[in-house]
C-alpha cells in the first residue's frame, strides 16, 4: 500500500483507497478524489464531480425531483466556505466560466499592441543608427 505509514487529514473517516468501489483502486486512480484534491487558482471555484454520458440531454435535464446523496463530508464552515451542487452544461467553447477566454483575448491583444509599438520604435531608431554609422 502506497499510503502505509501516513496519517489521514482531520475529518477523514476512511482511507483514500476506500473511496471508490473499484477493488483495484489505490487512491491514485480515483478521478473524483484527484479532482477534489487539485488546488484551485481562485477563491471561488467549481470542481467537476461527474459527467452524464448516457442519454440525450441536448434540451436539458427532464423536469423532476433529483436526490443527491453525499456520503463523504468535509466541514467548510471553519474557514467561511460553503458547498453548492451545480448542474451545468458545456459547449464547444468550454464551460460556464469565461475568465480563461477573456484572459487569452486580453493577453493576445496586449502582445499584438506591444508588437506594433516595438516595430515603430525599431523603424524610428533604425534611421538614426544608419545616420550615426554614416557619420563615422
From TrEMBL:
<comment type="similarity">
    <text>Belongs to the CDC50/LEM3 family.</text>
</comment>
<dbReference type="GO" id="GO:0005783">
    <property type="term" value="C:endoplasmic reticulum"/>
</dbReference>
<feature type="transmembrane region" description="Helical">
    <location>
        <begin position="99"/>
        <end position="123"/>
    </location>
</feature>
<dbReference type="GO" id="GO:0005886">
    <property type="term" value="C:plasma membrane"/>
</dbReference>
<keyword id="KW-0472">Membrane</keyword>
<keyword id="KW-1133">Transmembrane helix</keyword>
<dbReference type="GO" id="GO:0045332">
    <property type="term" value="P:phospholipid translocation"/>
</dbReference>
<dbReference type="Pfam" id="PF03381">
    <property type="entry name" value="CDC50"/>
</dbReference>
<keyword id="KW-0812">Transmembrane</keyword>
<dbReference type="InterPro" id="IPR005045">
    <property type="entry name" value="CDC50/LEM3_fam"/>
</dbReference>
<dbReference type="GO" id="GO:0005794">
    <property type="term" value="C:Golgi apparatus"/>
</dbReference>
<protein>
    <submittedName>
        <fullName>Cell cycle control protein 50B</fullName>
    </submittedName>
</protein>
Amino acid at each position: 500500500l502506497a499510503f502505509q505509514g501516513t496519517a489521514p487529514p482531520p475529518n477523514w473517516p476512511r482511507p483514500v483507497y476506500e473511496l471508490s468501489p473499484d477493488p483495484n483502486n489505490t487512491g491514485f486512480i480515483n478521478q473524483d478524489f484527484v479532482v477534489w484534491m487539485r488546488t484551485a487558482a481562485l477563491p471561488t471555484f467549481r470542481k467537476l464531480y461527474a459527467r452524464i454520458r448516457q442519454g440525450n440531454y441536448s434540451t436539458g435535464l427532464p423536469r423532476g425531483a433529483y436526490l443527491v446523496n453525499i456520503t463523504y463530508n468535509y466541514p467548510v464552515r471553519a474557514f467561511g466556505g460553503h458547498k453548492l451542487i451545480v448542474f451545468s452544461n458545456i459547449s464547444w467553447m468550454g464551460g460556464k466560466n469565461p475568465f480563461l477566454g477573456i484572459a487569452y483575448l486580453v493577453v493576445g491583444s496586449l502582445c499584438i499592441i506591444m508588437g506594433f509599438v516595438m516595430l515603430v520604435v525599431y523603424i524610428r531608431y533604425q534611421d538614426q543608427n544608419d545616420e550615426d554609422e554614416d557619420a563615422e
